Amino acid sequence: MDQLFQYQEPVLLVGAGKVNAKVLTSLPKNIPAIGVDGGGNSLQKWGRSPCLILGDMDSFVPDPAITCPIHPIENQDSTDFEK
């Protein structure tokens, strides 16, 4: 697989599962936040603007307030461990 993105600092990855809002809102805002599928919606809901959203988009709900790049990954088998 080709490298699509690279960050020189730690990043926050948020998936579509349950999010601990207290932990999420306590993290510094300068950490780049990447949403994986519905994790992009969770970030937006809790006041974190995602810098990128990627995944197969099976749980992501498009939102005009989210203006970051969105990178769909079409190969379902490479994005989810199991359904």
Write the layout of secondary structure elements.
Elements: E1 12-14, H1 21-26, E2 33-36, H2 39-45, E3 52-55, E4 70-72, H3 76-79
Parallel strand pairs: 1-2, 2-3, 3-4
Explain this structure.
With 83 residues, this protein is an alpha/beta fold. The protein has a single domain, classed as Rossmann fold (3-Layer(aba) Sandwich), CATH 3.40.50.10240. The chain contains 3 helices and 4 strands. A 4-stranded parallel sheet has the order 1-2-3-4, covered by helices on one side. The longest helix has 7 residues, at 39-45.
Radius of gyration: 13 Å
Helix-and-strand structural type:
alpha/beta
SS elements, strand count: 4
Quaternary state of this entry equals single chain
Summarize this entry quickly.
The chain is α/β, with parallel strands linked by helices and 83 residues long. The protein has helices at 21-26, 39-45, 76-79, and strands at 12-14, 33-36, 52-55, 70-72.
Structural descriptors:
about 80 residues; alpha/beta; 3 helices; about 15% strand
